[in-house]
Structures are given as C-alpha cells and as structure tokens.
Specification:
By secondary structure, the chain is α+β, with helices and mostly antiparallel strands. It has two helices and eleven strands. It is elongated, with a radius of gyration of 17 Å.
Length: 158
Amino acid sequence: MSKSWNAVRRALTVASATVVLTAAALGGGTAYAGATGTTAIGSFSYDLHGVGVSVPTGCFLTHSIQGSGKRIKSEMAGVDCMGLAVTFSRFCNWRIDFSYADSDNRTYKVSRGRTHAECKGDPLRRNSAQTLPSYGKACARFYVNGRLRATQCHFITE
C-alpha cells in the first residue's frame, strides 16, 4: 500500500470515530455517518497492446464515504495491494466510477471517471461533495482495460 493512501485511510478512520463519538455524546439531532468498505479483486489477466498482463490475488478496492443523510461531504475509492501483489500489480487503462441507486435499486446517476492510460499500482479517485435526490446506495466500480473488476457499495438510509 502506498504511504499516502495509508495516511488518508488513517485520517478517515480517526474522522469517522470522532464523528460517531461526538454524535453519541450529543445524542439526538442530525445523524452523521461515515463508512469505509473493502472488497477483494480476484486475480485476472488482460491484453495490453499484444502483451499479456497478469494481476495476482492480493488487491482490494476500498471505498470511503462521509456525510449526513443524503448529503455526501466526501467520497473516494482506490486500490490497495498486499504481499506479492504489491510488487507485481499494475493496472493499465483503469478508471473508477461512482454510481448511485435509489431504494428500489434503480441507478439514477453515474459519475464516470477518466480512463487513465498509464499503468499504476495504486489507483485512486476522489469525488466532489453532493446531495443525493433519494436514499439508496452509493457504489464505487473499478474497471481495468474496459472490464469491471470490482464493486464496493454503501447503503444510504435515514
């Protein structure tokens, strides 16, 4: 894992704990929430300009979201790898999309990320603050060379 991503994750964990403890101490009022989730990216291979690229097991898509109700203050998603995958994993032609669905699981918005032609071991994308029109779920989707490789979602409820 990159040092900057570890620092961001530590900061998000501290911020989440602070918000939860403050809300519990104050009781009542507006509910503040934050969530960080991780899903494993299975091993896979793909072709890049006639060259085979293999990604071993050991990489994860992590998605963090902070906010209150339907208001998202910050959202980010990135890939972390551990073990041998740190050394051997490079993601080429990657992008991260954020999608939003209502409580009936109908997707109403997709924030498509830019496709990055360079090969990177620790892709990361941040999304801007926004207010969602309805409760439901927010997802991060990781694509490599045009194929979906991992999805991680958080439910946003009252």
